[in-house]
Structures are given as C-alpha cells and as structure tokens.
Amino acid sequence: MGNGDQCAEEYLPLSALQHYAYCPRQFALIHVDRQWAENCFTAEGQVLHQRVNSGEAETRCDLHVARSIRLVSDRLGLYGVADMVEFHRVEGAGCQLPDHPGRWQPYAVEYKRGRSKADDWDRIQLCAQAMALEEMLGVTVPQGAIFYGKPRRREQVAIGETLRETTIRVTGEVHALYAAGHLPLPEPGPKCDHCSLRRICLPDRKSASEYLRRMFDL
Ligand code: SF4
Question: Staple partner for 16: which of 12, 26, 129, 186, CB 3.0–4.6 Å?
C-alpha cells in the first residue's frame, strides 16, 4: 500500500504498526516469517489487556464504555481490537449507538504496560484505532488516551494532522515491507534488550560473547 487513500490488498493487524515502529526487522520476523516469542514484557502486556478486555460494557449518565471493540480500516488496510472505547454523550455531532438514544463521541483508550515513551510507537497505534473508528462510525475522533501500567495513569493524545500523517506513512511502509516479504538486517541497539525476538534475531551474539569469554577466560 503506497498511500493512505488506497485500499490495501492484504489487511494487517493494528499491532503490526507498533512492531514496525519498534524495529522493522521485528515486524518482519513476526508478520512475514511468522516467528513469535514470549518474554516477560509481552506476558505482562497480555495480562494487562486480559484484565481490561474481561470487563463488561457499562453506561453511566453521559458515558458509555465498550470493551474489545473490533476495528477495521479499508483506508489503512488494518484490522484489530480496541481495548476500550468510551462514548461521551454530546449535542449535535457524534455518532449513534444501538439502544442508546442521543449522539455519542468516541474516545479510544489503549492499555500499555510500562511508561509513556518519547517515541511515537504507542501514539501511532492509537491514531490508527481512531482513524478506523472514524471510518466505521462516520465521525471525527480528535482525541484518545493511552493508559500506562506504570504509573497507572492516562496520557491524553491529540489525534492531530502530524500524527495522522506519520501513521499513514508508517502504515504504507509496513504494507510495502510485508508485500516485499523482505527481512531487514538486524540493527542491534538498546531496544534489543527488551525485544521478545532477541534470541531468534541475534542467536550468535550470546554464543559469540560466551566464546570470547571462554577464550580469554574472563
Ligand atoms: S533483537 Fe533488535 S534488531 Fe532484532 S528484531 Fe529485536 S529489536 Fe530488532
């Protein structure tokens, strides 16, 4: 998919954006080579998501909370599940909901382990969710939030033009890499220490350092 206004031939999961933004090789290992490895970071994230997704939908006055909402975007060629979407009652604009009279403004909340990051990895995924909601519900979604497990706080995210452009660009790159079926070379760095695919991606690194340690008796 070269640009965001074309339908993709193959739909990819929303999580692919974050994998790609973290490391293009990680994305290719997971989505092209179909490799997956669990580590304590992914396990922690799954527990957090299971807790959120097991909750029931609820309505309180001017707020309706829905969980595990299936999303699809023809424009981005992405599908996935939103952890939580809040619908705030509004006058005039907004969308309609079955069995809930009035108009409602959607507000996606994505749950993440760890802390807020300087990079846009998490915000790009949230933005894609917001854009999918816009396409499905015919409304503008100008804001969302990311709830971080540490320090258990929400970060409000403006779904602005720059973030949308970045999301469309990254989505195009992700589809292009997937279509090419290419596995980028590793670019080892600090991020590798937290990567669930480190042992698959860099199998020689540990053995090489062990070899050197043995050789020089360190
Ligand atoms: S180990 Fe490093 S280079 Fe390899 S996939 Fe993970 S982050 Fe990318």
Answer: 12
How many whole angstroms separate alpha carbon 29 and alpha carbon 34? 6
Per-residue pLDDT of the chain (218 residues; tens, 9 = 90+): 434 444 446 899 998 998 898 899 999 999 888 877 655 555 555 655 565 555 567 888 899 999 989 999 999 999 999 989 999 999 988 999 988 899 999 999 999 888 888 788 899 999 999 999 999 999 999 999 999 988 888 999 999 999 999 999 999 999 999 999 989 999 889 989 888 888 888 876 554 455 445 555 54
Residue at 32 is within a domain: yes
Amino acid of residue 175: H
| Structural domains of the chain, count | 1
Ligand 1 closest atom vs CA 191? 7
Q: Which amino acid is at 142?
A: P
Those residues whose C-beta lies under 8 Å from the C-beta of residue 36, and which sit 6 or more positions away, are 30, 196, 197
Q: Whose C-alpha lies nearest to ligand 1, atom 5?
A: 26
- Residue minimizing CA distance to atom 2 of ligand 1: 192
Residue 168 domain flag: yes
